[in-house]
Amino acid sequence: MSEAVHNPKLEQHPGSNTEKNPDNWVSGDDPITGAQASYLTTLSEEAGIDPPAADITKAEASKKIDELKAKLDL
Fold first, then answer.
1. 40: domain range?
2. Is residue 65 pLDDT above 90, yes or no?
3. What φ, ψ does residue 57 adopt, rounded to 5°?
4. Residues 5-64: pLDDT tens digits?
């Protein structure tokens, strides 16, 4: 008889791995994505500020998105 393999999909309250600190991202130093740039532009407009420079990293963009969402109570 074989031992059952653990399947997190079957857990009633599985832990989340969707939240990860951008400083720990393997691809955090990659250039900002198009989706991030678009979202940052939208959030910046709503906050009444200039969008960040286009040469920021994915990790920096994620942090800025989080800051603006908090500022805008989103």
1. 33-47+55-74
2. yes
3. -90, 170
4. 777 667 776 666 567 788 888 888 899 999 999 999 999 999 999 999 989 999 999 999
The pLDDT of residue 35: 95
Q: Is residue 39 part of a domain?
A: yes
CB-based contacts of 47, cutoff 8 Å, min separation 6: 68, 71, 72
Identify how many contiguous H helices and E strands the chain contains and give both numbers: 2, 0
Q: Which residue has the tokens 């791995």?
A: 17
**Structural domain tally of the chain?**
1
Q: Is residue 17 part of a domain?
A: no
Residue with tokens 């678009």: 38
Q: Which residues contact 14 (CB under 8 A, 6 or more apart)?
A: 8
